[in-house]
Amino acid sequence: MPKRLPKTDVVIVGMGAVGGVAALPLTNAGLKVIGIEAGGWLSPRDFAPDELRNGARNWPQSVQKAATEAPTVRASSDATAVQGGHPMMNAVGGTTMHYWAQSWRLNPWDFKVVSATRERYGRDRLPADTTVEDWPFGYEELEPYYDKVEYAVGISGQAGNVQGRINRAGNIFEGERSREYPMRPLRSSPFTDLMGDAARRLDLNPFQGPAAIASELYDGRPPCQYHGFCNKGGCHVQAKSSTAFTTIPKAVDSGNLEVVTFARVTNVVTDNDGKVTGVDYIKGSETFFQPADVVLLASYTYENVRMLQLSKSRAFPSGLSNNAGQVGQHYLSHHQGSPVLALFPDDLHNWYGLPAQGVAVDDWADDNFDHADLDFIGGANLWVHTDRKPMAAAKMSTFGQARNWGSDWKKFIKQNADRSNTAYIQKTTLPYAGNYLDLDPTVKDPMGYPVTRITARYRDNEKRIAAFVADKMEQWYREAGASSVIKTGPGNAMGASTHAYGGTRMGNNSETNVVNRWGFSHEAPNLGILGASVMGSSGARNPTLTAQALSWRTAEYLANNWRSVVG
Amino acid sequence: MANNHDQPDNPSRRNLLKSAGIVGAAAVGSTATPTIIAQDSPSTSQATSPIAREALEALTAAEAETLEAICDALIPSDDNGPGAREARAVHYIDRSLASHNSAARHNYMVSLAAIDEYARQTRGESFSRLIRDHQDSILRGVQDNKVPGCEPSASAFFNMVRSHTIDGTFCDPYYGGNQDFVGWDMIAYPGIRLSASETDVAQGAALQPNHQSAYDNQTYTKMADNMGLGTNNSGGRDNA
User: Fold this and answer.
1) Residue B234 belongs to domain spanning
2) Would you call B80 and A352 a contact, using CB atoms and an 8 Å cutoff?
3) Nearest CA-CA distance, residue B229 and chain A, Å
4) What fold does the segment set A3-66+88-566 form as a domain?
5) How far apart are CA A281 and CA A279, in angstroms?
6) What is the pLDDT along chain B (240 residues), one digit of tens a residue?
7) Is B74 in contact with A405 (Cβ distance < 8 A)?
8) Among A358, B38, B92, B196, who pairs with A385 as Cys (CB 3.0-4.6 Å)?
9) Which residues lie across from A8 on neighbouring strands?
């Protein structure tokens, strides 16, 4: 029997990007919160600028919980799934410790893909087998929470639309925001200037993207030092606005948050009335039961879904909150593949760059352009950035100019190591029937629990976007002076991704969605779910800020409606 | 001839020479393919330097000799400067096979033997003793999956060795490769800086290389001051 601990108000499973945000409004409201985290605390001392250790050797993730339960992957239900890797970090702060830190708001179109597409292009323009729905609310309802998170966490960026005032230095296509970013954008560089100028010559609208990285002294944290190792390496001065250095310490300081590290939740416990009563977790060799009035699942998409599927009970025989059979459905991972590569005739000065220091073009994203004569909906955010490190530089494409070893190769990289660039192109990705997450029938983690099985493949809409925007990207690179451009083709596999969405989708219809418009289960009313697993569409940009805004909104709703949620 | 690879030329003699401070290609005389066993970097090969204590941690002497020749062909020392040999990529790979990359140890054992066997069958000499053109020809065959006996396949092994050779040439020197920063100098990477100013970035390749390892910064070393061990900084170079 698990050791029964004293009851608390709220248990949050996972102290990462979203759990770490939710803790702050809850503890500010005086609620007692216990955050259970599979990883531990990391410090800036852990983030040595070491490309081999952090990148190639995947430190410290390679030995963490996520790595031991990496999903299996297959393209369709008639194939055998093979276990791959797991891209996420277990730590207080989660993957915000070392992510790229791009912190976008979704475009207003992303909230109403179905109705907006029908209205503009007619009923038959949605791909036949997509299960996409409009979100239960629009961008306007999430805007205040985007704003709260941008200021609480610390986002740098250039606004393009403040209360309807358009600033062409920012993203003219963005939804209206209530105020400016709390910090100016990260500084430009010779390369971002080169690309920005080229985009303007093409009559595009380039702008510097938003980042969860301090560009100036903010809330006691120093600004970015541009040393170039924060991707996979974390920030050595806490300029990266990880929840571990922002919202979580504040919640701890309130006296209302206790963080339990190196603890694995194995089961969300339910009573016979279908209410959750707490969680079982293992820490060391001991098993505990932590009772709570409310449980908020805040692990990553795969783990949120898996935890529900593993938590079977009398009230929920096929998994918690799964009596409608929707847990694991409407899964998608962002189409980020099909990169476009360019070679330039001169050095780009990118040795001290980072993925969040870059230039975006949104002219071909979302519904920012007319699709009437096209055979797809949605689009892509084009992003070029300055990240470069020596091992990766040496592994650059030779653009067909040399075999990839020997004296000719050496001569090539000696000349060109600082002259290549790879565009990062995030495309609208839709959920489809036949793309889903379930428990693998054979592969188990070391504790004996089945791992998640991903069954998913990209469809024509994603591939058509990829082909369309690759041409646009090539034009942009050519205008900037690229001497050679490689387009890598439209398809790629749908393996475990850092941009995984769905599986516990949010919506008003309890027959097709797991959580309601506030993020609480349709079936187990005191269970909330945080993270991109509640998102029903991807947009064309990184999910973290949206997931954090949703998390704050769910937490605030809980604090303001405690009686009705607890019941 | 067939047994040559089982008898790498007299390692004990070479070690004796090394003990006497007489090392390198000239000292061992006839061979055109000096091996890493006795090969020290220029900076530590002075007669006055203490002998570095160094084991082959994973590879056999014969495997190391074959791998040294492969790495040398992949990233040669040539008119464009030093290569994998000077970077000591094999030293890096050997250490990594005894630690992080231990899962690859078996494939190295099988595939290096297969490549050497193929060299002797087709060229009559162990791989490391062939002239560079013949080595390159065989390596193209490995890359194109035409050399039998490699695991998991010749091309997969080639890709792995290429990747590890690059790692060993361009990684932080702490890991035993990129000796004397020859890899970073090759591609004009100006070195690890904890802060890079706009002026630094504007200079590009004109920025003076600082030849710093991450672990020249005491905050990242194991014995950091917040562990109560003072601020002693031994210089950070830890190639042991």
Assistant:
1) 188-240
2) no
3) 15
4) FAD/NAD(P)-binding domain (3.50.50)
5) 6
6) 333 343 334 334 333 334 333 333 333 333 334 444 444 444 444 445 567 789 999 999 999 999 999 999 999 999 999 999 999 999 999 999 999 999 999 999 999 999 999 999 999 999 999 999 999 999 999 999 999 999 999 999 999 999 999 999 999 999 999 999 999 999 999 999 999 999 999 999 899 999 999 999 988 887 655 444 333 333 333 333
7) yes
8) A358
9) A292
